[in-house]
Amino acid sequence: MYKNFTTSDNRIIHIFEDAVDYNFQTKIYNYVKNSLFTITGYDNGILEERHLTLISHYDVTDLEECGFLSGLPEEIKSLISPQEYNITDVLVNLCKPDDIFHIHSDDTTNNGLTLIYYVNLKWQLEWGGDTVFLDSTSKEIEYTSKYSPGKFVLFDGGIPHLIRPSTRLAPDYRFTLAARFRRK
To answer: Per 3-state DSSP, what percentage of the chain is helix, strand, and coil (rounded to 5)?
Structure first.
């Protein structure tokens, strides 16, 4: 299922649910859970917003090896075609209940897109872990993307957003794969 949301400053958030089969989801999940994670301590590079989080950095080879790029739905591929965009950064966030997250943008040049993929194979609404998109002032919530296994969210990287922490009811680990693209 595909739907989109247009922000108050006319940026589009593309949402793709049930776009990949369980075999794709399982392959990505198994690859991610076996990744090497490192501790990072800052969100947005702002020292006052220090917290510890676990991230695994990927490159295009990793995405090819796990089948992520080849398994993307054609609708997504058409929006991030290699003729128009380069992959600039790929990371997997490993979030735990009670982690701290801050508002940030992935691209300040208005030239980039971010693709988020929700990796966990099972997730319930009461476990939280949603992605919240804000208006350009970062003061008002415009759209909340509920965490849903196998879901893709493609958006203008300049849209301010943040992760809502998982609740204490949630599993220990919430995984997202985030790929950033820049227009050529």
So the answer is: 20, 40, 40
